[in-house]
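Reply to dn_fold:

You asked what the input looked like. This is it:
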Amino acid sequence: MIYFRDGKFIEDAVSLDLAQPAFRTGFGFFETICWNGNKLCHLDLHLDRARMSLAQFGISEQVLDYETVINDVLSANDLENEFARVNIFFPVEEGRTVPLVCAVPFEYIPKRTWTLKPCPHVFLSPLMAHKSTNRMDYQNAWQDALADGFNDALLLDFDGNVLESSFASLMFRKGDSFYETQTAYKLPGTARTIAARNIEINELNINLAQIGCFDYVYALNSLGGMIPVTAVGSIEFEADFYFAEKVSAAVLELEFIS
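and this is what came back:
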């Protein structure tokens, strides 16, 4: 894999200062952006979110023409005409970040569904509102869910209230009404922002014990779009592909055929 950092294209190995917090503690942020084989999707939203985090933690950012650099990285990796996952990493060293841009192939699967395993461990930290590179807890929850045959983990607070999944924002539907979890302990999802342009989303405190009262559940992220959830633990749901495909088309900037 060829990536870009500090004015250079480099292959494979990444160099970090062993004494700096990016290496020692995972201090940094990142964004995951969809390249749909023709277009870079919603770069502005991703940069806005990353810069909000950088500003909150007092970190300065090396100036970069992201769109040009990303296109160059896609070209260097022969991904111009393929679906790809683009990542911008913001490792922090001495209160400053020199962004790293990379891209790898990603298989987008239309009409896929997800299952979620409620995580037995509590997630509750203000850092959850940031896409931090310090994500060991999320990785462990996801791997535990995979080991039990699920696609992802459902994250909960001390009272069993739903936060998000390891890799996605969550949305719930009852009748014609859509809901998201009402909590400060989740990432402000870019896919959720795009979904809100297409459907009205209400905030609601949702406890794990209440999930069965909803008609449909969805996961949303920048690469998968809006994915119907067919099970949360032992509770099963029907897959609503119509709304999922409509929102996915907006998230992935693809044509929606009703």
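The mean pLDDT is 96.
Hope that clears it up.
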